[in-house]
Amino acid sequence: MQIMKHINKFKFIVCLPIVAFFMVSCNSDGPEIEQPEKIYYDQAQRRMEANNFFGAIESLEAIETRYPFGKYAEQAQSELIYAYFMYSDNDASHAAAEKFIRLYPRHPNVDYAYFMKGLSSYTRDNSLLVRMTDTDLSNRDISGAKQSFAELTEFLTRFPDSQYAIYASQRTIYLRNMIARNELAAADYYQSIDAHVAAIRRAKYVIENIPNSSENFRALRVLEKSYKALGYEDLHDDILKIIKLNYSDKNISESEDSEWSWNFLRNSKPDPNTN
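Structure (tokenized):
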């Protein structure tokens, strides 16, 4: 009985490599098995088409983690920027854009990364409540808006011919006017407490540093009122001349904000065929 057990064990050991050889040979003659990296990428595309951005992020992050030097690594990094943004994780989108710029400074989609970096810095006005109620965000903290303005300005300087330049230009106009209104909201407050020197400082900042905003007329009116309150007659008369020369047909401040729509983002994902 013991002899038979040893014989069977010997047969198993001898036959195992032969069976394995035939299995490998059979597989090599069949169709090539699809690589997992491609599976993850295709899965991410299907999920984004279904607006399942959380699921798309999972698939793209899997490529980033498991195949950092794979065929789809660069494209996955690029599309993560978009997926994070559409999932409203703006910090992650900004970080992903910075990472993409750092890793692939010469990539065909690097302009998109710069654009999304600036866009994701400030998105507080993207909420449905803000758009429905027409909330004035200029009275709130706009440090993010200033960062976004600076980053989009850098984008326009680097890539003036980019397909995203027109959207960035519209966005900078919107942000520039918001920043100017924020400064003048502070000026109005200072005037209400008779702190006219501080009000003048804010108004002059708008005129000197944000010269093309929609708030120049309003800034001049702040200067006119504060100069008069302080008894600076010469300066007051000079401001009146400037207003009469440039704004003879205006009695109130008018906003010239350009239209800004977030809908274009639905169709502005990087082209997956760039690889």
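Residues 18 and 192 are 93 Å apart (CA to CA). The two ends are 65 Å apart (CA to CA).
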